[in-house]
Design brief:
Blueprint: E1 20-24, E2 33-36, E3 41-43, E4 45-48, E5 59-62, E6 69-76, E7 80-89, E8 98-102, E9 105-111, E10 123-131, E11 134-142, E12 150-160, E13 164-167, E14 172-174, E15 176-179, E16 190-193, E17 200-207, E18 211-220, E19 229-233, E20 236-242, E21 254-262, E22 265-273, E23 281-288, E24 303-305, E25 313-316, E26 326-333, E27 336-342, E28 347-350, E29 358-367, E30 379-382, E31 399-403, E32 408-411, E33 421-428, E34 431-436, E35 440-443, E36 451-460, E37 472-475, E38 485-494, E39 497-502, E40 508-512, E41 517-521, E42 527-532, E43 545-550, H1 554-557, E44 559-565, E45 570-578, E46 581-582, E47 586-592, E48 603-605, E49 611-614, E50 633-637, E51 653-656, E52 661-666, E53 672-676, E54 682-688, E55 713-716, E56 722-728, E57 731-736, E58 741-748, E59 751-752, E60 756-758, E61 766-771, E62 777-781, E63 796-803, E64 810-811, E65 841-843, E66 851-858, E67 864-871, E68 877-878, E69 895-898, E70 918-927, H2 941-949, E71 952-962
Antiparallel strand pairs: 1-10, 2-12, 3-6, 4-5, 6-11, 7-10, 7-12, 8-9, 8-11, 13-23, 14-17, 15-16, 17-22, 18-21, 18-23, 19-20, 19-22, 24-25, 25-28, 26-27, 26-29, 29-30, 31-32, 32-35, 33-34, 33-36, 36-37, 38-63, 39-40, 40-41, 41-42, 43-44, 44-45, 45-46, 45-47, 48-49, 49-50, 50-51, 52-53, 53-54, ...
Amino acid sequence: MKSRPLLRLLPTFGSALLVAAMLPAGSAAAAATRYEAENATIVQGVVATNHTGYSGTGFVDSTNVAGSYVEFTVTAASAGTATIGVRYANGTTADRPADVTVNGNVVAAGASFPGTANWDTWATKTLTAPVVAGTNKIRLTGATATGGPNLDYVDVDVAASPGTDYQAENATIVGGVVEANHTGYTGTGFVNYDNAAGGYVEFTVNAATAGNHGLAIRYANGTTTDRPLDVSVNGQVVAPGISFPSTTNWDTWATRTVTAALTAGANTVRLTGSSAAGGPNLDKLGLTAPTDTESPTVPPNFRLVGTPAPNQLQVAWDPATDNVGVALYQVYNGGNIVAEIGGNVTTTLVRNLTPNTRYILTVAARDAADNVSQASNSLDITTPPSDDTQPPTVPANLRTTNVSATSVTLAWNAATDNTGVTGYNVYRDGAKFATVPDLQATADSLTANTTYSFTVEAFDANNNVSSRSAALSVRTPGAGGGGDPVYEKDVTKLDLPWGIGFLPDGSALVNERDRFEIVRVTADGQKTVVGKVTEAVTTGGEGGLLGLAVSPNYAADHYIYIYYTSSSDNRVARLKYENGALGAREPIVTGIAKNQFHNGGRLKFGPDGFLYIATGDAKTSSRAQDLNSLNGKILRVTTTGAAAPGNPFGTRIYSYGHRNVQGLAWDSQGRLWESELGESTWDELNLIQPGKNYGWPTCEGKCSDSRYVSPVQQWDVAAASPSGLEIVNDWIYMAAIRGSRLWVMHITGATTDAPRAFFNGRWGRLRTVVKTPDGGLWLTSTNNDKNGGTPTVLDNVIVKLKFAGAPFGLTSSAFAAGGTIPVKYTCQQDGVAGNDISPPLAWSPAAGAKSYAITLVDTANGNKHWVIWDVAPSAGSLPEGLGLGYDVPGNAPAKQKGMSTGNKALQFFGPCPGSSTHKYEFTLYALDVATLPGVTSSSTVAAVETAILAHDLASTKLAGNSAAHT
């Protein structure tokens, strides 16, 4: 089934047809109202279902005669220009033109409907034409003996006529005169108020509908003092003493806008001078129509019709209501749209389903202003198996893409299947350790220096399973390297642990999403419910008690911060936790729109001390681009909820264009990274820049549009659906809900290495990952979290992970610790002290290191031979034979100094004890700065060492003996 056609709205005004264009089938903006052809008036034609790709319950096959027609009755909230998208199919090679009339007026005679290749291929013809407020008739009449094309529906979107201007010189004037002695006015003049209180200008304005209208008052004030006006509507003052400050001179005009309630029809708007100076010069009054902000009601009685088939099912619901009218219904599976139908239809066939698969369906209504209802009741349906018995082919080319001491990352080529491959089971030594939807998996928590055998098999939706692949034998190397997570222990079980914040005593406060409880959990798993957020509510989807952050000044203020769904919105509140109890909630950010899905919810304090808030678009994608909305954003606020200083727009908004932000974390450079749930194609990992636009809903995943920032990494939604994010020493850990795995990446510059998936399916859906005070990770599962969860059952876990990195240490492949340093790396190599060949050196990383430094010291006499510093934290090794230069060639940004002068001071100065054996020590330092301060090219080795000691986090030594001589 083709998705809904994309209508680019062209606001135009006039009495004749203005635009006719061809657009391919695609996805549509939600503002258009859909009218299905099968529900229209049909003369000489029938409703048919013998071709595929239509929406609704069928399409109209017009009789092959001139004069056959389909007439749609459409409703417009106001007069204006309608953009009409006609979805049709023409399986012939000849044009099937039709005359298009609106309310009896021909707006397109013989409009072309050319061939679409076949009757299963649909296209959209886009027209614009004027419509009146209320009911309109749109008729498409076959203009030739072959009749018109097959018609599926029309989408109609009305761009209201622009606001009306009323010239002041044509109004009723008391205490003023019409003049034209200044420039810049519109019309034939302006009103100059008498310099006395009580003078007024009264306009008679017409409103098409009742509601709050904008009154735009254009004025000039050439004095330096304010000239206020009282604004009244139909005899009632609605805005007393509105300020009309100076505009510098009488030729400079400005506009003040007030909002006032008008009745349908004629209204009097009076502007009265309220000071002895009278009012300003008045040019005109502009009237703008009210904006519809009222959402439709929830579609009631959402129900299954008949028995589901393996690939499709029929659903129905009772009509929603709306103050203007329902434009569209959308059926969701979880947070993803699976069907769309016109607002005049209350049943649809949901197609392209997978057999033997669970779906949780809801329906929501939208109006023409893109206001969306809350979700209906949900249907929990599992499609039946199909009669398919054919297994997929065997996955080929099983291989490794990364091997470490404790993990093996595998990849393979895709299998094929007559109905489609659903996923893969991956085995280690005959035991299944992962089930994945894509073509990679990581076996974790392995033993160093051990051989393992791996195989993989494919399966389809009917659980037909292929034979296993040929076995792949892999041996893990010895322990070394860091970053890989390893399971350490189970901590505790909870219902649905979402937000986690650690307290100074090492225990954590944990939010339970659906129980609305905050639980204190100790490092050994003891748990105590410390309180319940009684005003939190569920949304039957992703809402509830979500994020939690502990104040960075908790020891002094005892504040914690929570993100939760209330009866009216999503909001952030702060409260005190002291003496084992929760204090009263103090909302600090409110008005974040809520819905069943896309509620965001993550809270974290940044390194700048401000609170960062992740929000979702609440199922209205346009909010992500709306800088007046808090939804689809990352917010940055003070501890009281105010906009943080330095925010790019002067508001709470830090970045925008997001669909549903789930994870926030900062790297060693203080840069913010974010994980984000996609719609149905791509999930994202983004590097956030203040004020930037991340593209939703125009872009999902990588984007070539220069207006938007593309993600650093993207995943198919089945492989990720990311939630929590954490960064430790520039290693990113991203929990995946639908992917049921922990993605691991290492940051390199402004990107990462290839993501690797750990713990594939081990604990199911994963929600939150957070670093612990003792240097590990807590990881939470989030199973049974759909449809409001199962709050009566404690069926999810918090597990403790540790890191598999080797202990901080320095080694050389040229000599063993305590052994003899080869002559090659001493003065004896060329018989001259200094300018020697440096040995190869390597090390395992140290936690928190921002750079490394190494010194070489003769322990027998204390001579400090050589030092290198500002070695990049990602280096991990130095090659043999470093070149000459203060700036070490090929090893930027590293610097070096030797113990002598001239060129000898700019290169490695090796051991040279003079025939007696001395012990030399290479000392590796992990430093807390990227660039060592206070040293220059003229500093001595000893001076550099002193600077190093002021910034070292850890150190380790490699000693060797030498009796070298010249």
